[in-house]
Amino acid sequence: MKLFILLFLLASCGDDTFRKVEQLDRFRILGIQAASPEIAPPGSSTLTLLIYDPSPRASVSMSLTTCIDPGISLGASVSCAHDSTALTSSFTINTSTYTTNLGLGTHTTAAINVPAAIFTGRSTRDQFNGVGYIAIFDSVVDGQSVRAFKRIIATNRGSLNSNPAAPTLLLNGAAFAGTPQKNDRLSLTTSAPESYQFQNVDGTTETRIEDLQVAWYITKAELLSPKTRVDESTKLETDPSSDPYLILGVVRDERGGLSFTSRTIP
User: Is 4 part of any domain?
Assistant: First the structure.
């Protein structure tokens, strides 16, 4: 079950008139990292938004709404209308400093507080496996709506998830050196997947292993596979532009953990 979903991503359907998810060509929130992906409630976690803005600007207005997850993974709408305790605030992001990294940057929020009441009426199994507390980010940039959300998981399991280690980008399976060319392969390394306990419907527990996935992004080139497992690589389908460009890899562990690495070429 994916704990992190970006609703505004548009997938390519084999038609070049569709935007490809890996191409960085507009304002996007590419990931949201929680300082603590899992917490024992009551608790808190700050969120770091990974943002790409091809036209860095001094002020991007954004709203933030937080509430108990209505069951998004089961088909519920991304909304806090069901929760009378939902909180809404607004803030601005200054992306003008992102020019030093070709439009890529981060913004960290104030602490998101998860209340103890998140467990009210929840089964023992739900409290063990985790109940989501969501943060919904909305903005309008260049006339286009941008929405992303993050689930912080509240659990009494005791052993809490952590983010994967900061990845290292590899070129053709070795330390990154030189300028990538068409048919070169990109991959990365990070920490090993964590094991964790999951409680079944009958009350028994089993040990599971995280499945680490990578989302790839690039400017001025195309990739064969915009998503891979952490032990797989993706290939450059075209020769990149002679202009400076950006490569980004975002690792997710399917339990809310996230880390990323980027490189500007040359």
Answer: no
